[in-house]
Amino acid sequence: MTGQRGSGHPGGHPDGRPGMPGGMPRVDTDRDPVVVFWEMTRACALACEHCRAEAQPKRHPLELSTEDGLQLMDRLTGFDHKPIIVLSGGDPFMRRDLFEVVEHAVGLGLTTSVSPSATALATKDRFQKLVDLGVSRVSFSLDGPDAESHDVFRGFPGTFDRTIQMFRDAHEVGLEFQVNTTITRRTREYLPEMAELVGREGAALWDLFLLVPVGRGLDVALMSPEQHEETFNWVVDNRRNWPFMSKTTLGQPFRRVSIQKRLQTEGRDIGGMSPAEVRGLWPGPVTNDGKGIFFVSHIGDVYPSGFLPYRTGNVRTDNVLDLYRNNPTFRALRDPGALNGKCGLCPFNVVCGGSRARSFAMTGDPLASEPCCPYLPAAISAV
């Protein structure tokens, strides 16, 4: 693979798909991203212990300007299928031009989501403004069912109560929201309580983020492969009873587990299926780092995702369509045949492929086997 490694992690909030109303679009991910994340700033008043961005109190002097941001939105309309835009950070409310960017993006027909932090900037009036401008959804982070568990994770007392108030303010002004929860060895025990809370507060979607050990997340307890598998099975077994949608971010093996359990109930097996038949078992888009995902940092650097620090160019100097479609790093990440180890032999790699970001963070090779997947393909287990 080619590409310039960043000196630090590109940062940003969890790069999951925002799960917009009406389901995810069908997109040829070799040509077009499903979601484009713009990390508008790394400035944030919080100090979350898992933050990949290692957010800072003040804005960076080389951040993309308002004009840079508006031009970026213009260029993104050049894809065959307009991507979903997620404006993240840091805290995007730290930028005074947030509403101007939102208005421009929505005016171009770009489905737009915002990911604010739980600070005093996230007011009901600002939520109302987002509604008026046509924002489709906001995402809020909640990592525990009570103040004791959540506030330690977020680095500041009072963030749990503030987040719950944000839920209610958003609901009151008619702003759809999703809840993002980071799963670690410590937080996984809270998942049943979290599911109840998410449903009670009226979230549209619960996004379960599987930790990648980067940034401040290096010091957070990563789940074992077996705990990942147990978590995926728990979600599959319970999600049908939830009054909200659910998905995983950086939890690509969840698709394998879902398909395996479905085939088991139907008395079928994946053996003998062609890659096209296996792909047909997953109804939604298959996204991964650099595959349906396109990340723009606060200074305009382009990465395959907010968790994979392979710099491929900069929006100030490079054509974003060409970077996504033709850059060798992006192309390699989209090719299941380029995967190494058991991921390269796995029949599920056309729907899973493992987390390329986690592979890089833990092995130094973005094409290595997913370190947190315990599944052994028949091609290996038969040896």
Account of the 3D structure:
- This protein has a single domain, classed as TIM Barrel (Alpha-Beta Barrel), CATH 3.20.20.70.
- Helix content is 33%, strand content 13%.
- The protein has helices at residues 66-76, 98-107, 124-133, 147-154, 159-173, 191-200, 225-238, 253-266, 275-279, 320-326, 328-333, 341-345, 356-363, 378-381; strands spanning 4-5, 35-39, 84-88, 112-114, 137-141, 177-183, 205-210, 245-249, 293-296, 301-303, 310-311, 313-314.
- The strands form two sheets. A ten-stranded mixed sheet has the order 8-7-6-5-4-3-2-9-10-12, with helices on one face. A two-stranded antiparallel sheet has the order 1-11.
- It starts with a strand and ends with a helix.
- On the 0 to 100 scale, the average pLDDT is 89
State the secondary-structure class. alpha/beta
Strand content: 5-15%
Sheet of most strands: 10 strands, mixed
CATH class: Alpha Beta
Q: How do the strands line up in the largest sheet?
A: 8-7-6-5-4-3-2-9-10-12
Number of strands: 12
Which keywords apply here?
14 helices, 13% strand, two-stranded antiparallel ribbon, ten-stranded mixed sheet, single chain, globular, TIM Barrel, alpha/beta, 383 residues
What does the secondary structure layout of this molecule look like, with pairings?
Blueprint lengths: L3 E2 L29 E5 L26 H11 L7 E5 L9 H10 L4 E3 L9 H10 L3 E5 L5 H8 L4 H15 L3 E7 L7 H10 L4 E6 L14 H14 L6 E5 L3 H14 L8 H5 L13 E4 L4 E3 L6 E2 L1 E2 L5 H7 L1 H6 L7 H5 L10 H8 L14 H4 L2
Quick synopsis:
The chain is an alpha/beta fold and 383 residues long. The protein contains 14 helices and twelve strands.
